[in-house]
Amino acid sequence: MTSQNPACERSAVSDELLFKTTEISEDAKRLGDDLEKRYFLPLAIESEAKSKNDSCFEDAEHEIEVLHDTAHTLLQSYQTVSALEDELRSRAHDTKRAVKRRRMKILNPPTNGAIDLEEERKDHFARGMNIYKLLLLLAVGSFAGVIVEMLWCYLTRGYLESRRGLVYGPFNLLYGAGAVLLTLTLYRFRNRGYAWSFIGGFTVGSLLEYVCSYFQELLLGSRSWDYSGMPFNINGRICLAYSVFWGVLGVLWIKDLYPRAAKLILRLPNGLGRGITIFLAVFLTFDAIVTGLALARWSARIDDKPASNIVTEFIDERFPDERMERIFANMEFSD
Questions:
Q1: pLDDT, tens only, 148-167
Q2: How many CB atoms neighbour CB 66 within 10 A?
Q3: DSSP states of 47-70 as a string?
């Protein structure tokens, strides 16, 4: 009978690889002495010789090619082994943390390794990185981001203010898109060290903020945030402080929030889960289209452009300036 919880065993391959690399290190030292005799000294003499020795240069060129290929192979081997070392250290750290906090369920997210194992054992509709999981993460991220920012506003400013990005429901697709992009970018590093998650979050979050701000101003003539007063900003669209925040969020997301979300998704039955995912995707698509029309008309009304057809008249009636100002409390239109 096969054990359900196989014990960790020391890898003989690691010991063998260490032995071989020790030999390679010794060979590299001998190589320096060999090149000194075969090439360095003859080339020095050749530089003062009256006649040219073509064979010496040809042999040197061949040796250079061999050394280049060897260095490239060793570099690839180093990168592979270094990545494996980092992954093993990260998996061991995550598992130790999970065991230590076993009784603290709220503060103890499942490890990504445990999620991977459960997904392999189940024929689940949202297994791995498929479209169902990404759509669910989009919806969850859009909702959770609004709630978190509203609470943050209340704690820091003492009042609740809308942080919604859509006209129907407490959703903001910027947060959802951030959750999806962070997942797509960091998924391959989910079992690696924190540095990779931080760099990925820093880069993805900064690009997302800049692109969204740029196209919002280009298409609607408005901005939902402006970092011009903060140090190390780029066109007021991104700044160092918030980029670092995105880096920290990257670590928090892939090491804590994503495995929690994936664990909840695994509890959804296949039929019900597919139905919920399709409904949310259709609803958010409809919500985004209506939001785009409402924002376009809001911008047009500011420029004193009247409604020109039954659709724009309906939008003006359903989404007057007062309602839009409540929904998008921080949005400002440029001249």
A1: 888 888 888 888 888 889 99
A2: 10
A3: TT-SS--HHHHHHHHHHHHHHHHH
* Contact assessment for residue 334 and residue 221, using Cβ atoms and an 8 Å cutoff: yes
Per the structure block, which two tokens stand in for 149? 């920012």
The residues spanned by each domain of the chain are 15-45+53-109, 116-333
Amino acid at 177: A
Q: Has residue 2 got a pLDDT over 50? A: no
Select from 99, 144, 135 the least CA-distant residue to 268.
135
Instruction: With CA atoms as reference, report the closest residue to 264 among 101, 123, 136, 100.
Output: 136
Most distant pair of Cα atoms in the chain: their distance: 95
Q: Are 133 and 122 in contact, with CB atoms under 8 Å apart?
A: no
pLDDT of residue 174: 85
pLDDT over threshold 90, residue 131: yes
User: Nearest 10 degrees: CA dihedral of 30, 34, 37, 40?
Assistant: -100
Cα–Cα distance, 293 to 288 (Å, whole number): 9
**63 is written with which tokens?**
């040796």
Q: Where are the beta strands (DSSP E) in 117-180?
A: none
